[in-house]
């Protein structure tokens, strides 16, 4: 099996913060285009995805806690 090749139209050296956030956000839903997956594995650094994953997980947990507390106030 050959290693993933970056898309032909991607002259960039790495991924922007927005691209990493989008990739992690889509992975929360379990959807990702094949083209973006190849881009992530060929241009991204694992530590970027790990850090953004932890931050977004914290944001989601914080939103759940805030929603639960808001719901309890109206009981």
Count every helix, treating DSSP H or I runs of 4 or more residues as helices. 3
Could you tell me the strand content as a percent range? under 5%
Return the average pLDDT rounded to an integer: 88
Q: Describe the sheet with the most strands.
A: none
Helix content: 55-70%
Shape: elongated
Structural class: mainly alpha
Low-confidence stretches: none
Please provide a written account of the structure.
The chain has helices at residues 17-29, 34-43, 46-73. With 75 residues, it is an all-alpha fold. It is elongated. The termini are far apart.
Structure at a glance:
With 75 residues, the chain is an all-alpha fold.
Which helices and strands appear, and what pairs or packs with what?
Layout: H1 17-29, H2 34-43, H3 46-73
Helix pairs in contact: 1-3
């Amino acid at each position: 099996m050959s290693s993933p090749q970056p898309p032909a139209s991607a002259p960039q050296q790495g991924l922007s913060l927005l691209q990493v956030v989008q990739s992690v956000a889509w992975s929360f839903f379990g959807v990702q285009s094949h083209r973006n997956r190849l881009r992530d594995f060929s241009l991204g650094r694992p530590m970027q995805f790990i850090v953004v994953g932890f931050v977004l997980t914290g944001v989601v947990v914080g939103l759940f806690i805030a929603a639960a507390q808001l719901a309890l106030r109206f009981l």
